[in-house]
What we know:
The structure is a homodimer of 261-residue chains. Chain A has helices spanning 16-25, 73-84, 105-108, 110-120, 143-159, 224-229, 245-251, and strands spanning 3-8, 29-36, 55-59, 65-69, 91-98, 125-130, 165-171, 182-184, 189-200, 206-218, 233-239. With 261 residues, chain A is α/β, with parallel strands linked by helices.
Amino acid sequence: xxxxxxxxxxxxxxxxGLLALAQEMRKLGKVSILAPDRNWSGxxxxxxxxxxxxxxxxxxxxxxxxxxxxxxPSDCVSLGVLGYFKEKVDLVVSGVNHxxxxxHDVTYSGTVTxxxxxxxxxxxxxxxxxxxxxxxxxxxxxxxxxxxxxxxxERVIANGLPPDxxxxxxxxxxxxxxxxxxLMTRQGLRVYHGRLDERVDPRGKPYYWIGGDAPTAIPERGxxxxxxxxxxxxxxxxxLDLTAYRTLSDLNxxxxxxxxx
Amino acid sequence: xxxxxxxxxxxxxxxxGLLALAQEMRKLGKVSILAPDRNWSGxxxxxxxxxxxxxxxxxxxxxxxxxxxxxxPSDCVSLGVLGYFKEKVDLVVSGVNHxxxxxHDVTYSGTVTxxxxxxxxxxxxxxxxxxxxxxxxxxxxxxxxxxxxxxxxERVIANGLPPDxxxxxxxxxxxxxxxxxxLMTRQGLRVYHGRLDERVDPRGKPYYWIGGDAPTAIPERGxxxxxxxxxxxxxxxxxLDLTAYRTLSDLNxxxxxxxxx
Lengths: 261, 261
């Protein structure tokens, strides 16, 4: 039976990465688009419970119809999975994000947390992000990333995903014929160089930018960062159980167990 | 040397849980308070980079001084750790949250993601949350939870925490003398019963509430949910590496590796 694929993103419904992804997903099934009406990048995993959400119909650049909500990417997934569309959603694909989501980015990223939200609802979730090249183009070509996403989603449709697992796909910025293939990876590391930038406004009051240099990616082999550095598409399975099992046994030596310690 | 403890929360700087926590933490070191100026519950892991942040001095109910920012809980941690205070921050403690943060809550929770943010900056982070009893009190007593937090933070100061690990502490709503002690736990499960609630506004336009019944906690032994159900304080070590290592090896059988598959 044809799969019903919900496509969302965190750059907003008019982002070109969303359209490229939707176009590729249409080759795999019926696509519904429900995405934020504005950019939510770095907005984290949100569940909007304190206000109602609006949804409006939007015409996309290729003439197709999408729906835009005033909620976060994860809210769009909730709306979609809980019944905004008549048909059951079989799969959620989020992206193509403008910028890679590597290492610690995964808990901040609206793209990745949208896929998390799907998995919490027992629907397979796949996040897709495209590296921004160093010479920062005005108009990026999202098609090679969307095609890579199609290859991954095809496998997910064929093989399924274990419950509680989402896929975080990152694509290096290369023409399709220069992509090296796919690597299954673990979450890597980026070292942050945050710095607080204190300024004073025209009325003499201070304000603060979270500033500093861009994080340094550690291109270790086997990681998402390493795969991109070598020109591979990185596919990282992520789980929603964050328990640090190794530490768990150590903590039992802390003698915190006794009553009223 | 005396530890410098940053206390933050996601319920906002005037929340009574924050004050109870700060008062207990003062028994362990020098406390600075930097918390959101409003409620950020369910706001997820946020890094505010697209606007500057303001910080204002606030007088708390016990006459002490705190600082309120217009950013998310994780932004407050960034501000504090990156140098808003003259002294280096040694430890971040977030809470006491109004409501437990169990199971999948951890990636949505401002309380927990504040502790995550600390760990990303290589500072130990501890999140503390208090269960809301079923008979929902108007004024909750946060002191037993704050005292439990003190016992945990004392051990963290004595023993340290491995890098990349935060602690998620949840306290059942019981008087101090009825708390059963502490259990080291893994992240449990709550089953969500989300439902979309479509309504029509006075102008005939639809709007949508993410509704449904409260999630059903599965009180499995060994989990955070199970510990609370038995009257224990739950201490769950969480890691920032979300890689699903078991799935990773399975994915290598997907034959996605070859070039241009």
